Amino acid sequence: MSKQASYKGIIFEPGYNKTYAEFKKEFGMTHIFKNIHPDERESELKNAYKVAKDGHTSPAITESEGTQK
Predict the structure, then answer these.
(1) For residue 37, is it within any domain?
(2) Segments forming the whole domain that contains residue 63
(3) Largest Cα–Cα distance of the chain, in whole Å?
(4) Whole-prediction pTM value?
(5) pLDDT tens digits in sequence order for the chain, 69 residues long
(6) Lower CB density within 10 Å: C or N end of the chain?
(7) CA-CA distance, 37 to 11, in Å (whole number)?
(8) Is residue 6 part of a domain?
(9) Are residues 16 and 5 in contact, defined by beta-carbon separation less than 8 angstroms?
(10) 3-class DSSP state for residue 64?
């Protein structure tokens, strides 16, 4: 059984195969992304999409700094 990929609390189904446009439409305005400044939101969405497609869990992120641990 393969491990589910996750990104900041979003858990993706194994074998996630939607396009980036579909991903963005589905997740772009969730609570995870809607409060991020629009200039940074696109980058965060691309990171999350990569996690969903590659099937890896995202690294821990500190909320105050937004840096990887």
Answers:
(1) yes
(2) 18-69
(3) 37
(4) 0.72
(5) 457 888 998 999 888 889 999 999 999 989 999 989 988 999 999 999 999 998 766 554 434 334 343
(6) N
(7) 23
(8) no
(9) yes
(10) coil
